[in-house]
């Protein structure tokens, strides 16, 4: 698949995984050798020449070791003063690392292991957008330009909702696809 543009890939892997019972980013599905975060990096590779992983303090080192042989993958953690503010913390860490006013990001969560490249291509080609079905919006699967000034303002004002930020600051629209089992996130181990 030829690149139309080359956004920066961002994998959201900094959650606490409380309901799951262990770190989802490093979890391997039964019968698979690759952890979920690596599956998402593989999914992003045809679309992005650089991939950032928004990690947490507990999984950062293990993710760095896992991806050490892949120079296009960079593991980041939340930057002060905005640690622990959900996905917006990962966006802030990415903006801090990129040092650009409005970087273009293609974002995916670590816990949608059944997401396909065809579904990701939908937001890649129709942006700014987030993936949605008639039943549910999937805000963590999105393609947009990140207005860093507005991100910093949202964080300073303690407005941490990704949905609100994507719709208002990034002007993302829902990119509707037919209902599919591929958009199941893993909140609990099966």
Automatic annotation (TrEMBL):
Q: Which UniProt keywords apply?
A: Transferase
Matching entries from InterPro entries are given as: MobA-like_NTP_Trfase, Nucleotide-diphossugar_trans
Query: Which Pfam family name is an example for this entry?
Result: NTP_transf_3
Q: Gene3D superfamilies recorded for this chain?
A: Spore Coat Polysaccharide Biosynthesis Protein SpsA, Chain A
Q: Which residues form the MobA-like NTP transferase domain?
A: 9-145
Q: Which domain of life is it from?
A: Bacteria
Keyword check for Transferase? yes
Extract the GO molecular function terms from the UniProt entry. nucleotidyltransferase activity
Q: What is this protein called?
A: MobA-like NTP transferase domain-containing protein
- The organism is Loigolactobacillus bifermentans DSM 20003
């Amino acid at each position: 698949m030829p690149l139309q543009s080359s956004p920066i890939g961002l994998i959201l892997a900094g959650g606490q995984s409380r309901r799951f019972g262990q770190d989802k980013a490093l979890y391997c599905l039964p019968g698979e050798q690759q952890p979920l975060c690596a599956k998402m990096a593989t999914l992003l590779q045809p679309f992005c020449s650089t991939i950032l992983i928004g990690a947490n303090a507990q999984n950062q080192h293990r993710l760095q070791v896992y991806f050490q042989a892949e120079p296009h993958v960079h593991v980041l953690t939340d930057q002060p003063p905005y640690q622990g503010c959900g996905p917006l913390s990962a966006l802030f860490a990415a903006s801090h690392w990129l040092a650009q006013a409005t970087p273009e990001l293609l974002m995916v969560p670590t816990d949608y292991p059944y997401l396909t490249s065809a579904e990701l291509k939908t937001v890649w080609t129709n942006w700014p957008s987030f993936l949605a079905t008639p039943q549910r919006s999937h805000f963590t699967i999105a393609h947009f330009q990140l207005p860093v000034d507005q991100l910093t303002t949202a964080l300073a004002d303690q407005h941490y909702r990704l949905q609100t930020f994507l719709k208002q600051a990034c002007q993302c629209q829902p990119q509707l696809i037919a209902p599919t089992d591929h958009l199941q996130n893993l909140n609990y181990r099966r």
